[in-house]
Amino acid sequence: MFSGIVEEAAVLVAVTPRGGNIDLTLRCSFTDELKIDQSVAHNGVCLTVVSIEEDTYTVTAIQETLDRSNLGLLGPGDRVNVERSMRMNGRLDGHIVQGHVDCTAQCVDIEEVDGSRYFKFGYDVNPDLLAKGYVTVEKGSVTVNGVSLTVCDSGPDSFRVAIIPYTFGHTNFGDIRVGSTVNIEFDIIGKYLSRLMELKN
User: Are 86 and 3 in contact (CB under 8 A)?
Assistant: First the structure.
């Protein structure tokens, strides 16, 4: 379980194919604090640490993860938002994030306003997933590349988020351009409510 409060943007140093899977090797400031089998979110995707060597660690992404996320598009030198799992005795500064990416979206517009930036993302709407609560709502929560954000201008297949300078500088939002692919996790509370309503009907 995560909060969507990214700790830093790790640097991807190697991508190694393993059959239909890939190993991602990254470097970050807290590598020496990690342990084998520990869960770490990468651009919002929960992955397990499988090896640690000096100042780098490696995680494995399976084919389904690659199909649902942007991890397969990454290459050495790319920055990846990372967050270790949430401590249960701390404050929930973001929102409840599972680390289970629902789909990808594309950046369709970036607008700079008084030092902050508005990013607009569009995504393909799957009617089945729509019925199961895979939507955004105005002032609701959404996770973009692992970052917990508040939705504004929610549409049927798009939404905008406001990015303050701190987030822009400390996550890979600084690397996003129009046309970039990002990972999206919709709010789990909305999914449960939609499922309960479906069962009642």
Answer: yes
pLDDT per residue over 21-73, tens digit each? 999 999 999 999 999 999 999 999 999 999 999 999 999 999 999 999 999 99
Cβ neighbours for 8, distance < 8 A, ≥ 6 positions apart: 28, 29, 30, 81, 82, 170
Kindly report, residue by residue over 86-100, the tens digit of the pLDDT.
887 777 788 888 899
Q: Which tokens go with 77?
A: 């030198």
How far is 41 from 73, CA to CA, in rounded Å? Answer: 17
Burial of 106 (0-12, 13-18, 19+ CB in 10 A): middle
CB atoms within 10 A of CB 198: 11
| pTM of structure | 0.91
Give the residue from 140, 194, 155 showing the smallest Cα distance to 4.
Answer: 140
